[in-house]
User: Fold Receptor expression-enhancing protein from Panagrellus redivivus.
Amino acid sequence: MAAVSARSNPTTPGAASARKSTSKVSAVKPADAAAAAAAAAPAAAAAAPAAADAAGEAQSFAELRESFEKGLYNTGNPILEQQIVKAEQATGAKREHMAYGVLGVLGVYLIFGSLAQLVCNLIGFGYPAHMSVKAVRTEGKDDDTQWLIYWTVFAFFSLLDFFAEGIMSFFPIYWLAKALFLLYCALPQTRGAIKLYAKVVEPAMLKLDAVIEKYTKSA
Assistant:
């Protein structure tokens, strides 16, 4: 009977100690969970747009080619579509073959053409400028990051262009390479600017900030 009473009595030392331990665990767990959630929130917020963007990216050259050809058949512009159909009927060639031909001629001109610098910079300016204006009108900041990084890359190449004549003496496809790299940074199928930011710009800035902070404190 005494044993039964000890087990059923809520005021026994063992029961009281157990209740205290349980209350401490209950008090600590929510705090720990809140701290962990707060710490993980920035990473989750940063990963969410990246995952969403990755869904529309081409993961291989074959996917990039497929996306390009699909865009040729879904122009979204009736007037442009009508002109393309007329060109197909006149030449007997498919639109993708004509597009590849134009790109081939453009590539050759970027190597040997006298206005290769102008053509290259027009390629790197037109579409990104249009999309940057659209990004300013949106509320989200994901596209702002994309185009801020893109224009930083564009500005770097603009400085490098000062030495283009010397560069082309040993790297004659400079303008072609620049145009391809700018397209890689700008196109939604590749989103190279975001990748460049994550892999190069952000780590470099973190190291630079650490050096500045170190010398600021020592001063």
